[in-house]
Amino acid sequence: MRLHVADHPLIDHKLSVLRDEKTPSAVFRQLVDELVTLLAYEATRDVRTEEINIQTPVAATTGRHLAEPRPIVVPILRAGLGMLEGMTRLLPTAEVGFLGMKRNEDTLEVETYANRLPDDLSGRQCFVVDPMLATGHTLVAAINYLLERGARDVTAICLIAAPEGLATLEAAVGDRADVTVVTAARDERLNEHAYIVPGLGDAGDRLYGIVD
After folding, report:
1. What is the pLDDT of residues 156-199, one digit of tens each?
2. Does the structure show a pLDDT above 70 at 105?
3. For residue 188, what is the DSSP state?
4. Sequence-distant contacts of 95-99: CB under 8 A, at least 24 apart
5. What pLDDT sits at residue 103?
6. Residue 210 has pLDDT above 70, yes or no
7. 55-68: average pLDDT
8. 100 labelled as ligand-binding?
9. Which residue stretches, if any, does this entry annotate as coiled coil (predicted)?
10. Is 133 annotated as a binding residue?
11. Per the annotation, does 62 bind a ligand?
């Protein structure tokens, strides 16, 4: 597994505003969208392309476009939806799949309540988006879904990541696939409630409000 912590002053600035507890939901949503686009630029450096012939107004030349099969973006519901537009803005031809997952706050186990993915992901570059990589259990479950369908090239894009979650993910994936994590920050640790420290709170609640 590879870890890429994006290093850019705009990323640092936007993440600092996201962390601030006084940032309202409307601003939080806008900044998540902007931050994801910056992270997506880093995450797609190795996206596969192929050569094409094109005609400019001046002369014939060669260029490149995204190769088939098209990449697939997989937001983990619900918080991952706040990252979807930022990804598809950069990859407008990508397909979109959905995984609905939530963490049981008592057991910390992952519960899956929705699954909308192609049956065969062989040869597809998969981009999983989820704001928080905390314990790592949700991302492990999501990546396992993709691997079961034949994916072997998976990039996870997270706003922040905890070292415990990164270790859990690395141990779970092993050598089964080529997995990369792209994040804006590797935070200090998890607290006793499995929240990232210093973190930014519950990303889903801050994006959409508290829904019981």
Report:
1. 999 999 999 999 999 999 888 899 999 999 999 999 988 999 99
2. no
3. S
4. 95/70, 95/71, 96/72, 97/72, 97/73, 98/74, 99/74, 99/75, 99/142, 99/145
5. 67
6. no
7. 93
8. no
9. none
10. yes
11. no
Give dist(CA 66, CA 24) in Å, integer.
Answer: 37
Q: Tell me if 202 is assigned to a ligand binding site.
A: yes
Distance between CA 49 and CA 191 in Å, rounded? 42
Say what the pTM is. Answer: 0.89
CB 25 within 8 A of CB 211: no
Decide: helix, strand or coil at residue 118.
coil
CA 132-23-136 angle, 5° bins: 5
Is residue 78 a known part of a binding site? yes
Please indicate if the annotation marks 52 as binding a ligand: no
84 phi, psi to nearest 5 deg: -65, -45
| 138 known member of a binding site | yes
Nearest to 27 by CA among 171, 206, 212, 209: 206
196 is in an annotated binding site: yes
Q: Is there a binding annotation on residue 132?
A: yes
203 vs 31, residue with greater confidence: 31
pLDDT in tens, 66-85: 888 989 999 998 888 888 98
Residue 86 marked ligand-binding = no
Annotated binding residue at 167? Answer: no
Report whether 203 belongs to an annotated binding site. yes
